[in-house]
Amino acid sequence: MSEQLRLMAVHAHPDDESSKGAATMARYAAEGVRVLVATCTGGERGSVLNPKMDRPEVQADITNIRRAEMAKAREILGVEQAWLGFVDSGLPEGDPLPPLPEGCFGLMDPVEAAVPLVELMREFRPHVVTTYDETGGYPHPDHIMCHKVSMAAFEAAGDPERYPELGAPWQPLKLYYNSGWTRARMLALHEGMLAAGLESPYAEMLEKAEDRPGRGDRGPRITTRVECGEYFKVRDDALRAHATQVDPDGFWFHIPLEIQQRVWPTEDFELVRTLVDSPVPESDLFAGIRESLPAR
Ligand SMILES: [Zn+2]
User: Are 117 and 166 in contact (CB under 8 A)?
Assistant: First the structure.
């Protein structure tokens, strides 16, 4: 038997896996790749963002409800999932920002917090790992810590000197950052909506981006575009499974799938570490790896 390809996606909260790289995961899973989502926190400080779910009994049982939502999303995407067991920091709001709650993920020492992820990497033995860039993709302390912990674990998992008690070393071969909202993608969707005679929800966002040219736009850093338009519906279904976190009438779902599939049928990534030869641009997270494994 030849070796099966394995992909690990590290995310901060339950629901993040369904909005960042979800269609890519669904596609790889459908193609026979083993896909594991590692969820850093339980999402227990997430606000209820769906008006229909904002009820006292939901708030009171939020931890269990979010676990059940995650189980449903995992099934829809066709992936495996593991909890790393950290406590959600919540998104601090106000001026000045309040301190983070004691014991939360955002306050952890990344070397210490890498322990469960190193252990999981050595157990699951992923060829490819995805995570967030150093800004977290958006400035949530858990997203920034998710980046730090992923980098620390990627460097340590293959080193027999590090964490020897956590199992046999395993070195993943490639590490990617999820690329989210680039200006080019927003503009393409905006124009796609206008061309279809629909109102674009991006007008204001594009104007804001105009005010600060170049800032925060990681479009030029993209190395890898994975075709996955066929799985956008699966992605949206998984996202809707996180019913407390996602308003089914919200912004996310305003762009007809047909337009998304036509104007931007890929999910995009930045290749930041590779131990194999894989010239960029590329269209497959496993480029350079498939070739080196025995034929399936
Ligand atoms: Zn999150």
Answer: no
